[in-house]
Amino acid sequence: MTTPAPLLALSDYAIRFATPDGTVKAVNGLDLTVAPGETVAVVGESGSGKSQTFNGVFGLLARNAETSGEAVFEGRDLLAMSQKELDTVRGDHMAMVFQDPMTALNPAMKIKHQLAETLTVHKRVKRRAAEAEALKMLKKVGIPEAERRIDQYPHELSGGMRQRVVIAMALLCRPKLIVADEPTTALDVTIQAQILDLFRDLTSEAGTALVLITHDLGVVAGIADKVVVMYAGRIVEEAGVDQLFARPAMPYTAALIRSIPRVDREAEAVEPIGGRPPDLIHPPTGCAFHPRCRFAEDRCRRERPPLEAVEPGRRAACWFPFVDDAAGGPAPRTETAGA
Amino acid sequence: MPETLLSIENLSTVFELRGRSLFAKPVELKAVSDVSFTLDEGETLGIVGESGCGKSTLGRSLLRLIEPTAGRIVWQGRNLTELSDTEMRKARRDLSIIFQDPVASLDPRMNVGKIIEEPLKVAEPSLGRGERRRRVEKVMEEVGLAPQMINRYPHEFSGGQAQRIGIARAIVTEPKLIVCDEPVSALDVSIQAQIVNLLKSLKQRMGLTLIFISHDLSVVRLVSDRILVLYLGRIVEIGPRREVFQNPGHPYTRALLSAAPIPDPKIARSRARTALEGDPPSPINPPSGCAFRTRCPIARDVCAEAPPPLFTVGADHRAACLFWEEVRAEGTAVA
């Protein structure tokens, strides 16, 4: 089986922040690939490093940040690029969509001009043609009465509509990669469903790769091909979406899935993950999840488990992963509540 | 037979917004329109709806934290809207609230002990200092905070712990009813479950009655006995949890349920979805008749005529749709 050359490959990628309280190791030794056209969900809780990882890829980190390792996009290391080179890659070949659409929109500029600017700057398209293209894109992302909306300012649109505008803006240069950071978290559930449908259509139609950063496993289940789970700045599990939900290998993933209530289940309680999120300045020794893991043993407290293949197509960072016997891995641990 | 603790009768809360110019007439925003329901002792009522539907305004209006414009709030036989400020303050010891943003809802200059004892000072002014401190330590333990933390300040706590402080403050007067306004929405997934379980166990132990306001249907299903669905300030459906989730009588409820994400890829791919088009209309200028008709997949001309009344669609289950039988006939919404 040959895998196509990845569109984006992070290797030994790390981000540190110098703070008065000490160095925050936000992202550590990350190895991650995104194939062309693939939808990868990056899941984690606050402080897991999921957003910082991609802020770093886009050169959007705060000044006290330091990145190391490699972030290779279409064969070129983004971390080694000059600001000017990075500017052409961003927007042109890869685009980012944020949780709050207003962070990406200029409140004092008509939608028309903001969208057209993307094309006139990156693709050197003439203004008139750029505006025509912008209108087409607004229609494509499902903005009703696009002819009227294009002449309005961002504040005249609803939250869902603004997010559509931002997505239209991201798509205008026909990027190969879109990174969307919690794009539907601020939206109502019926609008969230509309935006996710839009992403699904766009990725399958145009073959755009999508990295979806989210804390919501429900959103992940409906859209991802591959899921990457992060904890305390590291990848702790990576698997195909079906595998991950059916048979999580890492106790954190399993516990996370069990801790979420489900709209389609009658239940009296959920099983929470005890304890607190890890301190990134003084992370726990060994496996960062060990203080909250009910399977932790001595080795977990002493040594950090590497992220290794536990079966074809899936990796986990755990000394005692849950894996099927048939796969030839270590014996499965007894699981009380089935996933 | 459980006793009716609270009875809301035709409650409306209208906000006056300034007109576009200095001399223009103020614009009315009906945040809550003609809402009636009763609450039995010991039950949990979940209130759901999208942003701007009036769920938080309703929660605050029934504690008179926002003054309702019309209607009655009958609490243990007394109409709260007729109480004087002093009488209301006395009644408040039975009524409590937990807010969404745990850190923002705590005074940063007060230590945990002061924050938690504040309502106690108002409710039981005769309590001595030592006794107050004892009560504070007791509730801290009940919500899973070490009493040694009593002198710490809010910024020293994580979101989950801050919400525990908010809960301790809400239960210190031993109230009968707590309005929980999106109490877990700002928390991480793994912490949400801790707080939900804490609320459920406190409810059991203290015999609390809860109103649980949330946009998250899965959390609401986990905690509630009955569900109230709001759309543009009006009740569109109210009924027992299982009934509302499995076999709703209003197309809006059905659409909400079908849009709620399910963390199972196989179900997520195969489930039927009622995609709603567009955004909710503005509450300043709501559509005539049924407010949902502009987004409703089964709307007909007649829906524009008058707001539909709440029809009885099942045992203790009502929905405000002329075509509720059609909606019910569609079968299971979610398992």
What does this structure look like?
- Chain A: Residues 8-257 form the ABC transporter domain.
- Chain A: Belongs to the ABC transporter superfamily.
- Chain A: This is ABC transporter ATP-binding protein.
- Chain A: It is a peripheral membrane protein.
- Chain A: It is found in: Cell inner membrane.
- The complex is a heterodimer of chains A (339) and B (335).
- Chain A has helices spanning 50-57, 83-89, 111-122, 127-140, 146-149, 159-171, 189-206, 217-223, 241-246, 251-259, 298-302; strands at 8-19, 22-34, 39-43, 65-73, 76-77, 94-97, 177-181, 209-214, 226-231, 234-240, 308-311, 314-316.
- Chain A has 339 residues and is α/β, with parallel strands linked by helices.
- Chain A folds into 2 domains: 8-224, P-loop containing nucleotide triphosphate hydrolases (Rossmann fold), CATH 3.40.50; 231-327, no CATH class.
- In chain A, strands 6-7-8-3-9-10-12-11 form an 8-stranded mixed sheet, sandwiched between helices. Chain A has a 4-stranded antiparallel sheet with strand order 2-1-4-5, with helices on one face.
- In chain A, helix 4 crosses helix 6 (159-171).
- The two termini of chain A are 30 Å apart.
- With 335 residues, chain B is an alpha/beta fold.
- Chain B has a domain at 248-335.
- In chain B, 31% of the residues lie in helices and 22% in strands.
- Chain B is built from 11 helices and 12 strands.
- In chain B, the strands form 2 sheets. In chain B, strands 6-7-8-3-9-10-12-11 form an 8-stranded mixed sheet, sandwiched between helices. In chain B, strands 2-1-4-5 form a 4-stranded antiparallel sheet, with helices on one face.
- In chain B, strand 9 and strand 10 form a beta hairpin.
- Chain B is globular, with a radius of gyration of 21 Å.
- At the A-B interface, helix 7, helix 8, helix 9 and helix 10 of A face helix 6, helix 7, helix 8, helix 9 and helix 10 of B.
